[in-house]
Amino acid sequence: MNKKKILVLCTGNSCRSQMAEGWFKELRGDEFDVWSAGIESHGLNPRAVKVMAEAGVDISFHHSKLTDELEDIDFDIVITVCDSARENCPYFPGNVDRFHQSFDDPPGITQEWTDEEAILDVYRRVRDEIRHYVKTFKPSNI
User: What pLDDT, in 10s, does the model give residues 18-37?
Assistant: First the structure.
């Protein structure tokens, strides 16, 4: 079977797209080859790493990437996971199917918070929403 190549794209490639990449590799790795990148590079978010590890998925070896680093890959599917990425999504040549599913931004929501457990609960909620999206994702041409 020829695996489809997916790029998951968000603003900073630090949290949501990293979680989605981890879930795709964990749950759908037999169907898809998956990368993530950002319009900007904000570094890998340690709380995203932590909550993914709690769910049994290790993303600690990931790193925050810009789309330029993946320009030699001919993607079949690009999934934007935040509105900013959708609005600023770079051009991908060829026949690329685009999908969009916006998820809340845990670092943005919790930036003023001090209760670590409450902060992690937001990350966990978004992690679980992304897992559900990945489990139920159906590309239009499969």
Answer: 999 999 999 999 999 999 99
By the 10 Å C-beta count (0-12 exposed, 13-18 middle, 19+ buried), 123 is classed as buried
Phi-psi region of 78 (alpha: psi -120 to 50; beta: other; left: phi over 0): beta
- Helices marked H in the chain — which ranges? 16-28, 46-54, 83-87, 106-110, 116-136
Tell me the domains of the chain and their CATH numbers.
4-135 (3.40.50.2300)
Cα separation, 55 vs 68, in Å, equals: 30
pLDDT digits (tens, 9 = 90+) for 100-133: 999 999 999 999 999 999 999 999 999 999 999 9
* Contact criterion met (CB below 8 Å) for 59 and 22: yes
- Cα–Cα distance measured from residue 12 to residue 35, given in angstroms and rounded to the nearest whole number: 14
From the CB of residue 53, how many other CB atoms can be counted at a distance below 10 Å?
13
CB 30, CB 53: distance < 8 Å: no
Catalytic residue numbers?
10, 82, 89
